[in-house]
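From the shared-data thread, chain only:
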Amino acid sequence: MDVILMQSVDNLGAMGETVAVARGYARNYLIPQGLAVEASEGSKKVVEEHMRLEAKRDGVRKAGAEVLAAGMGELSCTITVQADEEDKLFGSVTARDIAENLSTDAATIEHRQVELEEPIKQLGVYTVDIRLHAEVAVPAKVWVVKT
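Structure, as tokens:
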């Protein structure tokens, strides 16, 4: 079954693309969730209008993220943890820990915005990106020190 994606779907396609999917996947998940519509001439026009409006909204969100990034300045935090003699941590520092330490009254950072490939398991200084928008990221220094 061919559907037109109303939003970008991981491992499937970007917004506006026409993709072939299983009929059950389309009818039971994509269409009820509002992620896609069945491909037809009429729905192509609806999707084009939706994409035009979404591009405007995305521009506004990006501008807001750029203003927020400029206002944040340089981000840094110190996280104290327990470690052994070889500087290995008892546990690990995760994106959630970093988000809690970086959040301030001016800006709240969610753990989904912290780009951390894998949890930190050693003492040291790390630079992680805080993704405010798909195209706007702010670097942050994270100091992991022994208690």
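The radius of gyration is 21 Å.
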